[in-house]
Design goal:
flat, four-stranded mixed beta sheet, GMP Synthetase, Chain A, domain 3, three-stranded mixed beta sheet, alpha/beta
Amino acid sequence: MTPLRDNELKDMLKNLDGQLRMEPSRHGQLRDRILMESEKAGEPKRKRKLGTSRMRIRLAAAAAMLLLLGTSPFYSPAMASFAERILPLIIAPSESAGDSLSEKIMQAAEESGYPVSAVGITPDPFTVQLAFTKEEMSLSEMEEAVEPAIHELLAEEGIDQYQLDLTVMQEGEDPPSDTSRGEINVEPLISEAFSAYGYPDLAGQPTYSIKEGKLFNTLEVNMPDQVKEIEEIKEYLLANIEKEKWNIQKVELRYFNAAHRSQEDRWAFVSSDIFEAMEGKAIYGTTGLSYKVEEGVTHVQIKTALPKQPDPQLLKEISTAIRVYLESNEIKSTIQEDDYRIQLLSKEKTILLEVTNAAK
């Protein structure tokens, strides 16, 4: 096939502006993506050229598909594949992107008549897991009712590479021990201790665990390293535990670097936003995500099944989407002055692209 010419595509997109209702800033991305797909299709398999009229028919068909995706309530895996191949990548901050995919899946299942106990999404392979409480109807009947709604939703999201796993949860749980959080509620006491010594920000959501031992039980409390009244807080906790006659004989404080932890927490959301925008879409081939903070720099690696030399236009699109996302006001205020290095890795673990503000 003959690839589409850039100037012709610009004119056609301009004429379609009113119908597609796209922001002008997205025209360039859409144009580049269609050109990329057209060039792929134009790689010679046979020595034959199509005339301009045939080329216009192909573009008209693409435009019709775009319009259909935007207006029709019916979706299919083929249409989802077309959407994720043509529509540009957009990474949205999770807090402003509306309901998460898990919430949408839960809602779709419930609208089909089956309340969901839990929804899980795991990568490589991208799998959507739904757990239902035991009902009178069989699992096969549930699948028949729920699966079409989930397939339709995922197609609407442009997700075309996934597995669907429906299970029924069995009732009954292990009884809690006498040192579980249900029996010994130490959280208010820890909050009270932090507040008493001038750390109201730590009092809001203290993190702790109760470690059970053969001879004695230990309360382990996570403590930022900037806290100075360490021994005082420890004695405060021990005195009140003894007063309440709780089955805890020891208190240990675990220290962490507050600045390091805050940076990790910030980038947990940022790295997830980037990964989830590409997850489940065959064109990106994502297989995993990792991030860590090391010497003040956040390192994010997005693992894919892409070859060592994917289409340059695809890499350009991913890089642009990441940069636009990072430059949004919401994300700039989130990551503050953090140094970062975001890498896209091939199947062979080679670096396909890097977006960074950190010195080499």
